[in-house]
Design brief:
CATH superfamily: LarA, N-terminal domain
Oligomer: single chain
Number of helices: 6
CATH architecture: 3-Layer(aba) Sandwich
Strand content: 15-25%
CATH topology: Rossmann fold
Helix content: 25-40%
Length: about 170
């Protein structure tokens, strides 16, 4: 389902247009009581994911219970990075992804499938893992903001709602 689409190779989405687009999308999703936002970390600062996250926070307010920057294996964001990227968002909402200790395995990619994708270069099974807050958090909405395209192509975002920053759609 497409909640919003706008743009072309020549379109520039300004600050007000971005805020209006995020608001329009969230209105279609309805009210929520416990929302988790998963934006990228500071390495994706220029994606405007910080602005999108701020708009989501302003829309849902106290309904935002957690913000988990998607670090992968990157270092956690510093206070300065959080302040620059996520203006007007309370720091106590941010959680740190500990990729060594806070993950849950939700499935396994079979070795045969990995082998087929890699033309036999790799042939072992691969665990599909997510941060435990996605499973244990009790959220009624999880929004993944500003995906890195190779991650999306590989299928890592699964079926969560995804804002594709700088692209034409938000999809479920």
């Amino acid at each position: 389902m497409i909640y919003y689409q706008e743009g072309s190779e020549n379109t520039v989405i300004g600050s007000e247009e971005l805020k209006k687009a995020v608001s329009e999308i969230l209105e279609k999703m309805g009210s929520r009581k416990k929302v988790l936002i998963i934006p990228p970390d500071f390495t994706r600062f220029h994606s405007r994911a910080g602005d999108i996250t701020t708009h989501i926070y302003e829309h849902y307010g106290k309904g935002i219970s957690d913000i988990l920057p998607a670090l992968g294996t990157h270092m956690p964001m510093t206070e300065d990075e959080l302040s620059v990227m996520f203006k007007r968002v309370p720091r106590d909402l941010f959680r740190i992804h500990d990729w060594r200790n806070d993950v849950r395995t939700v499935g396994t990619v079979p070795g045969e499938f990995v082998s087929g994708l890699t033309e036999g270069r790799l042939s072992y099974s691969w665990p599909a893992q997510v941060n435990k807050i996605l499973i244990d958090g009790g959220h009624d909405l999880i929004i993944s903001v500003g995906q890195v395209v190779p991650h999306e192509v590989a299928g890592w975002p699964t079926t969560t709602r995804i804002f594709l920053s700088g692209q034409e759609a938000m999809k479920e």
